[in-house]
Structure formats: C-alpha cells, structure tokens
Amino acid sequence: MNSSQVDSRFDNREGAAVSVQIAEKSKISVIPVSDALGAEVTGVDLAKLTDDQFDLIRKALNEHLVLRFRATNLGDVDFTHFAARFGDILPSPSYTRSRPVYIPEAPLVTVISNVTEDGKPVGEHGDGELHWHTDLAFTETPSALTMLLAREVPPAGGNTSFANMYRAYEGLPADLRKRLSMLKLKHQASHNAQGGKRPGYAHLNIDDPREMPGPIHPMVRVHPLSGRAALYLGRRFGAYIPGLTLAESEALLNEVWAQAIGPANVWSQSWQVGDLVVWDNRATMHRRESFKGQGLRRMHRLTTRGERPVGLVADPVEF
Ligand code: OGA
Ligand code: MN
User: How far is the CA of 229 from the CAs of 51, 86, 171, 212, 224, in angstroms?
Assistant: First the structure.
C-alpha cells in the first residue's frame, strides 16, 4: 500500500493526513493500523536510515505512539544503532536480569523469551500473561521508549496489546479528568504486574498497597514532546492513590482502568519473525497474552532513558 492508498477506514482519524504528508515527502508509508493507536511503517531500510527518514519516523512515533516495521532483517548491532538515535539506551534492567549480557556484540540488548538452553532460560518473562503495564513506571525516571524485535515466534499466542493513554484520558468525563489531574499515584516497586515479588524484595511481606515501597507520580502526565495529557497508571497490582482511603483508591482505580483498557482504546500486535515494534511508554500501556504450550518465542529488546513524569497541574495536591 503506498501513501495515496491510505485505508479509508482511518480517514477520520486525527493525524491521518499528517501521515500521508510524511509519506509523500520520503516514500516512507506510515499507515495507521487501528483507530486506537499504532501505525505500520514501510519503505525504509532501518540499517541505512538517513537523518531525514529518521526525523519522519520520530514524528510518526509521536503521532501514532506505536510503530511496527515488518520483515526488518536487522542485526543486533544495527538494532542498537537504530535505538540509540532516539536517545540514551538504558542498560539491561537488573530487576529481572538473570545474565549481565545476552549478546556479546550488542551488550545493551536483552532477551524476552521462554527458550531454554541447558535447562536454563535464555531470557526473561517465560510464556505467561504479562498484565497491563507501562515499562519502569515503578522507578523515579521511567523509560521513554521500548523496542521489541521478534527473532522467533510461536504459531499462535503471545500477542502484545497496546492502549492509548491520551484517548483513555480524553474519554473520561470532564469532572473526573479534573479530579485525576489533581491526584498522584504510588507505583509499588516490590511486585511485578502479576503480583509476584521482584528480585530483592523476596523477604518483604507487605500485602497492603498503602505500605508497598515505590515512587509517586502524577496520575495525569504531560508528554514532553507532544505536550498532550495522558493517564499514567503503571500497573494495577499494588497501585494506591495517596490521600484516599484504600477503598476509595481501589474504586477510583477500577473505574479508570476499565476505561483505559476498553477495546475501543486498544490495538493488538500479532507477531511475525522480523517485526520490530517501537512504543512510547509515556502515552501507552501494554500487555502480553499467554502462549503457554504454544511454542517458542524470542524477542530482542532495547529501551531508552526517560524523564521524571510531569503532571498536568503544576502543583498537584501533596499528601
Ligand atoms: C516488555 C514487555 C511484552 C511482550 O518487554 O516490556 O512487556 O510481548 N514485553 O513480550
Ligand atoms: Mn513491558
């Protein structure tokens, strides 16, 4: 599909016209994949990217929040070079890491996989469901972008879904938007999205979200590039809104989460080998469905450094 054949289903989508313009300038096509978020980029060799092409890709990411490149044929060194154009690459996360370096010639790449060698996993996260989350929200300066490059995929299962957190925010009633913009959220650091304990917290026996350790970020954050407001929810497990009773916090979080991950707000990526998907953690959440018993999956992963989330309201209530 070239730029003049943009799927008419997306004609009404805000930003679609910009995609066409971008495409005509450089022969890159940027075609929305759903009316929630996401676009597929074609017509570019990521190992030989010009500055102009990269600029168009960065703008497309800012607009569509998730970009998919198919059949990339990228080696891990070129993958690292591509990722580094967006910003500093974060070293592999020590909170899950079972090996210091996975790929000697591309030491910043980590592996997300259920593949085992000599009975030991070659990567992280196995084959189970990964509940909705946004990467590193439980740190003071969460990562900006995450990129997964599919090296091996099961015949079915293991899809990754993305939710648009601008839309999630904009879809809420005005009074609720206003209330949320005044609130903060504690993102507990001791447990993962599934409720399992992270390494280093094995001896902690806290099951009250109010007591779990972790950073506090605004519930509504302003994206540093777009200037738009997005809901910032992190993980549902263990989240707590300081200043509310636990019951009030749970009720409000349940209400907001239901809106955020509603089907109108979500697109799901069904993986093929060679797919590279880049997403912006500052305006999206993601989840992975289980693929237990469905085969082997191996993703190579890079993330870029982000910033401390900034709230929509200059001085939200401090508790
Ligand atoms: C991640 C992640 C999802 C997947 O790497 O941050 O959530 O589909 N991965 O493997
Ligand atoms: Mn993730």
Answer: 29, 21, 12, 27, 10
Centroid of ligand 2 to alpha carbon of 135 (angstroms): 5
Residue where the block lists tokens 């707000």: 265
107: nearest Cα among 78, 77, 82: 77
What is the whole-number distance in angstroms between the Cα of residue 128 and the centre of ligand 1? 11
Nearest residue (by CA) to ligand 1, atom 6, is 135
What separation in Å is there between the alpha carbon of 51 and the centre of ligand 1?
28
Return the pLDDT at 314.
67
End-to-end CA distance of the chain: 53
Give CATH superfamily name and number for 27-163+266-305: Clavaminate synthase-like (3.60.130.10)
Spatial separation of the C-alpha atoms in residues 18 and 225, rounded to whole Å: 16
Domain residue limits, the chain: 27-163+266-305, 173-260
**Closest ligand (CA of 109):** 1
Look at residue 96 in the predicted model and tell me its pLDDT: 52
pLDDT of residue 194: 87
Among 253, 264, 34, CA closest to 170? 264
Q: What is the pLDDT of residues 143-174, one digit of tens each?
A: 999 999 999 999 999 999 999 999 999 999 99
pLDDT digits (tens, 9 = 90+) for 55-94: 999 999 999 999 999 999 999 999 999 999 999 999 876 5
For the CA of 269, the nearest atom of ligand 1: 8
